[in-house]
Records
---
Amino acid sequence: MREPGRPTVTGGGRVRGSRAAPPASVSAGLGTRIRLGDAEPSPHAREVLDTIARIPPGKVMTYGDVAEFVGAGTGRTVGAVLRRYAEDDLPWHRVIRSTGAPNPSNPAEALRRLIADATPLTPSGERVHLAAARWDGTPAT
């Protein structure tokens, strides 16, 4: 009989009856980490958020563009940072898919905000016209 509060090891070597503490961070690929829980954003996540905050109205960056501009991670890393740390004042809608499709978490709201920003759209009105709206990270003059 096992003691209360003590884990049991099964025949396959798995531990039953105990829960490991969740990790403080997870790998986001290519040497980047994203902190979990109530932790502050990692330096990488902070760079991603700062880059997104600087995208001017009427302009967009793809997830991959943000990763390339920051110099680390991938488009998926950028998406993970947005899911985890985006706040209402962050222009999350200005980060789009490489096809010009709006943010997949809330495409209708993203399109509404892009229209309010006067972002150029394709004739169908369902995608951003990337050739006209893509921002390269240089400050507006």
Note: Residues 43-53 form the longest helix (11 residues).
---
Amino acid sequence: MERGTAGATPDDLLAHECILLMRGHKTFDRWKFRENGEVRDVQVRGRLLTTSSEVVYQWTLAGEGIGIKALWDIHPDLASGRLIECLPQYARDDADMYIVYAERRHLPPRMRAFIDFLVAELKSFYGAAGIAD
């Protein structure tokens, strides 16, 4: 795909080959966008389907289609020009992320250090708004 050919609106994705992710028995073919302050779904199509987000990334890099990924996951590729962000004016900034670990009376110092590192990295990338400690 050439630069700037993804279209002007999320509905224009219907004319493109999209790379779909599958988890369990669910295919993620309804991509969410923010338009006029509201979140809306667009049902996309594609011949390529995988259970691996890494494969989505590799196929997207190889030019096999349009994939959907978190900005923090592909930031270096966007900065270098290897990937192009499509429809940035419709991007959603919100995502729920949780750090899950077994309940313990005393959290090991290495676990606390890792959690603190993740929170600091996410805050430095996204800013402090909306990221709880």
Note: The chain has a mean pLDDT of 87.
---
Amino acid sequence: MVEDPLATADCLQITREMGFDRLLSADQPYTTSCPLPFQADSVKTARDVTRSTLLRWGLSELSDDAALVVSELVTNAVRYAVYAGARRDIQLLLMRITPHVLLAVADPSDDVPTPKEPDFVSENGRGLYIVETYSQCWGWDPLARGGKAVWALFRTES
């Protein structure tokens, strides 16, 4: 649920104007970027980077939800980007755009992320449902170099 649609629209407009390609390669204030290899332990690394970044920014109240969402996004990237030939690493990006935190995972796959109806018996297929449930909103943007950035937006209390 979007509590402040104008603030959310402003945040998303900033990311689209700059472009995820530029955000992923630039050293911006209140931005953390981390390359992740195509391996299962990248999920733990992404959670650790997310938690430590939010703690450093004084936003530890977002840590649990953001760590869960980043786990799902990186798991999807590792699982599906392998089919894209793994031309480059996965890239994690966290960006503070007050009053939001944007979390994005870029991967080399051009496949569009498609939510599935959650099957609570199956061991997979719930990832984007979890992302949608725990973030304010989510989406994806194609990258100029190929691939995509799947992002989730969180609203901060401060």
Note: Residues 28 and 155 are 20 Å apart (CA to CA).
---
Amino acid sequence: MRRFLPLPRLDRLPTAPLPVEGVFRYQGEVVPVLRLDVLLDLAGEGAEPNLYSPLFLVTWQGRPAALLADRVHGDTVVDPAERTPSDPALTFNGCAVGAFPDRVTGRGGTVTLLDPDRLLSEAEGRLLDAFRAVAERRLAQWRHSQDAASSADGAA
């Protein structure tokens, strides 16, 4: 994980697949926002995204992506000796790579460690790349229109 971010204003595109809440620009790149509740089939368990919904900015296949959660209880450094490996055969695409003791929420139990690169299947990854390319072209058209309008205003 690169960092936590507050939920920015998202551009929602009509061709977005269900797990994609929208896109935003971060350091010059289009960042798709993926809903963890949809990806993990937890529909109906979380709140609708709002201004206070946290994002986890991650690197997915070398490019930024953001995972939308309903809340964050905190963050913690976990000693590798405390991590228990997970059996990849027991989770979708082997996305759960381990677990560690929950010391943040006060509820006990364990926290599952997810690998962002494994949250999507190969086919879903190709679709997300295609969607990102469409979003980049679409946003570039708006930027080109704004640049043209600014130039026309300056010439008047």
Note: The chain is about 25% helix and 30% strand.
